Amino acid sequence: MRQATADLFRSLAIQRRVVFALFMRETMTRYGRHNIGFLWLFVEPMIFTLGITFLWTAMKSVHGSDLPITPFALTGYSAVLLWRNMPARTIGAIPPNLSLMYHRNVRVMDIYIARLLLEAVGATMSFVLLGVLFIFLGMIDPPEDLLKVAGGWLLLAYNGISMALMIGTLSERSELVDKIWHPLAYLIFPLSGAAFIVEALPHDAQQAVLYIPMVHGLEYLREGFFGSKFHPVYDLSYMILVATGMLLIGLVQMRTVARLVVPE
Fold it and tell me: Is residue 20 a contact partner of residue 104, using CB atoms and an 8 Å limit?
């Protein structure tokens, strides 16, 4: 028993080093060493989020409530960056890294984890830094319940990771997945809750959008941000169930993909 435990911790330590090495490799490959280098990891999503936030503020966009538009845009578009970019990074992730499969300790899962971690870290740092900056400048009020904000963000990340693993592994089996996902992502974006609150929709529309799991996580996050000013509509058990289902599909497909690409 003791030997088995020691072997487990040794394997976890090896995988941690492998994932970190792949994470740094992805960072250098994607952002390079020029200009501000790896700082683009969170500066890039910050620029996108800032642009959308200021655009919505300048246009005085209507979102069906009297909630302030700046924190509304910050929470909405930051959440979109979190879940939308993850599948884009797992689609076609294996072929460029196929040579790494010849290393005994590198697995298909490690490549996916490194890429997903890169996206999660970048989006999270962007969200946190912009939130702190806007609070410091007096543009938004601090969240009323920071734990709910963190919980909503983690649920959105879990959903994004699960969806990305499912889509990424399925894309290794068929090129149609890549062709379908990109237009589908644009269609899901306006339905994901980024630009509206569920309560403001007609009853039939509410029932329809609540089938989209990201809506529940974003409503929960905004409840933590706005608190008493906001009446959320969500079912976290549904969101977790759907995300877990996608994760299981992704893990099953990953075993198939591993058998196809790992050299004998």
Answer: no
Q: What is the Cα–Cα distance from 131 to 154, expressed in whole angstroms?
A: 16
**Which residues, 6+ apart, have CB-to-CB distance to 213 below 8 Å?**
159, 238, 239, 242, 243
User: Using one digit for the tens of pLDDT, what is the confidence trace for 156-167?
Assistant: 999 999 999 999
Could you give the C-alpha distances from 264 to 98, 100, 165, 258, in angstroms and in order?
Answer: 13, 14, 24, 11
Check if the beta carbon of residue 141 is closer than 8 Å to that of residue 135: yes
- Residue 142: count of CB within 10 angstroms of its CB: 12
The Cα–Cα gap between 153 and 78 comes to 10
CA dist., res. 123 & res. 144, Å (int): 22
Strand, coil or helix: 203: helix
Least confident stretch, 13-22, 174-183, 233-242:
13-22
Distance (Å, rounded) from C-alpha 214 to C-alpha 212?
6
Instruction: State the amino acid at position 82 in one-letter form.
Output: L
The continuous run of DSSP H or E covering 238 comes out as helix 236-261
What's this model's pTM, rounded to 2 decimal places? 0.86
Position with higher pLDDT, 71 vs 39: 71
Query: DSSP string spanning 69-115?
Result: HHHHHHHHHHHHHHHHHHHHHHTT-SGGGGGGGGSTT--HHHHHHHH
Cα 89 to Cα 41: distance, rounded to the nearest angstrom? 14
